[in-house]
Amino acid sequence: QVQLVESGGTWVRPGGSLRVSCAATGVNFSDEGMAWYRQPPGKEREYVGLINDIGRTHYADSVKGRFTIARDNDKNSVSLQMNSLKSEDTAVYYCTSRGHWGTGTLVTVSY
């Protein structure tokens, strides 16, 4: 059974940095692409970025140059490093792979 568990969400000031992670079980992790999405309060879920099985990444324009996705196949995990955070980055962040979703982790960017 596939399980994705996000962690690391918290409150951070604008301009700050934060890394959230996603641990995967029940998958052959090294063969899977992983994606991050987010859902801001009162808005629809939106694409953040992805990393494929060989480590190639792609990002939404809204986060390009500020966010970095990395994977650790030894730990079956993927991370999202977020720098220069803005209030509009406030959202629940989800990881997903092959139609499976985690329950999300809340990131709040405010003073």
Describe the protein:
- There is one protein chain.
- This protein is an all-beta fold and 111 residues long.
- Helix content is 0%, strand content 50%.
- The chain is built from no helices and eleven strands.
- Strands 2, 4, 5, 6, 9, 10 and 11 form a seven-stranded mixed β-sheet that branches. Strands 1-3-8-7 form a four-stranded antiparallel β-sheet, with no helix packed on it.
- The protein starts with a strand and ends with a strand.
Tags for this model:
four-stranded antiparallel beta sheet; mainly beta; 111 residues; seven-stranded mixed beta sheet; 11 strands
In short:
The protein is 0% helix and 50% strand. The chain is mainly β. Strands 2, 4, 5, 6, 9, 10 and 11 form a 7-stranded mixed β-sheet that branches.
